[in-house]
Design brief:
This protein is mostly beta strands. Helices cover 0% and strands 62% of the residues. It has no helices and 10 strands. The strands form 2 sheets. Strands 1, 2, 4, 7, 8 and 10 form a 6-stranded antiparallel beta sheet that branches.
């Protein structure tokens, strides 16, 4: 790895909690992710490496499906439905995380916001935050 020529590694976090995630995608429970581009109208271009979902109030769910889109309607995907096991906390079984390791370059043809949609295999949960680690310029 040529560390001298690597672009900066960035992390964005959407801390808008979404409650009542169930077993189907719900447009009302979309997670908006501001990729913090400057200026805000700049298109996002980068190498996505990791997405972390922090969950709470987990009720029976053991798997979560993530879809990331460039549009608010969930029709123009940049990451198609991807499943992760839910790993619960050591001290609190109703809190947990799901991690999605990616290996993809992404270039959007419009402003740099992304939209995440999630669903469980069964039960319900809340999403406390979503965090994306990527390499690229802002």
């Amino acid at each position: 790895i040529d560390l001298m020529n690597m672009k900066s590694i960035n992390r964005v976090t959407s801390r808008t909690a979404v409650t009542g995630i169930g077993s189907s995608f719900d447009l009302a429970k979309r997670i908006d992710i501001d990729m913090e581009m400057f200026p805000p109208s700049q298109n996002f271009e980068g190498y996505l490496s990791l997405i972390v979902l922090q969950l709470s109030t987990i009720s029976t769910g053991t798997e979560i499906t993530l879809r990331v889109c460039r549009d608010q309607a969930g029709d123009e995907m940049i990451i198609t439905d991807t499943v992760s096991d839910i790993y619960t906390g050591i001290t609190t079984a109703t809190k947990g995380s799901a991690i999605f390791a990616l290996n993809s370059f992404v270039k959007l043809d419009r402003a740099g916001d992304l939209y995440a949609f999630v669903k469980l295999n069964t039960g319900s949960c809340n999403i406390d935050f979503i965090e994306i680690t990527y390499q690229g310029d802002r």
